[in-house]
What we know:
Layout: E1 17-22, H1 26-33, E2 44-49, H2 59-63, E3 71-73, E4 85-87, E5 93-97, E6 101-105, H3 117-128, E7 132-136, H4 145-153, E8 157-161, H5 170-177, E9 183-185, H6 187-195, H7 202-205
Parallel strand pairs: 1-2, 1-7, 2-4, 3-4, 7-8, 8-9
Antiparallel strand pairs: 5-6
Helix pairs in contact: 3-4
Amino acid sequence: MSTPAAAPPDLRRRICAVVMGASAGGIEALEVLLPALPADTGAAVLIVLHLRRERSSLLTEIFSPLCVLPVSEAQDKEPVRAGRVYFAPPDYHLLVDRGPQLALSVDEPVHFSRPSIDVLFESAADIYGPALLGIILSGANDDGSAGLAAVRRAGGLTVVQQPDSAAVPYMVRAALRGGAAELVLTLPEIAALLGSLHAPDPVDDNVA
């Protein structure tokens, strides 16, 4: 098994979607990462953050003032648009379906979690393949390890937060044990990576 790189690469591939998964300590991590997304981000950003099922989510209220991109709670059958941040609603799995469009599910919890990071990552890997960036952040269970492996198998770029920088490192260590991480980065390094996700120049798309 190769050792994951410790510094972000020069992103030459086109990233059409970013999936992030977090649990305990995730809000603090996202407060560093989401403000780094540029106004011309060329990717959609989809996030699963484990929340108590009985509580309403305040994630859009928390993060909208911090982001230059629109932030919303995902809606079933909603088209996925570049340059938007979507949070999974409490007690629903969030998936990406063909279109691409969002889908919500009340299937059984995975790793005691609904929404599940694995469910989002695996479905997004099927749709986006090599154009997907998967990121596992601070958290307290194994959710996300299988999903990150699915992203890697599909040819996507896989990133895990450096364990010493995570408020609760169990989730990132579980993902590292799974062997699917290409990069192990601190929060500022992940923020720099996200900051490079500019929409491609239309002229570049026409270059052979």
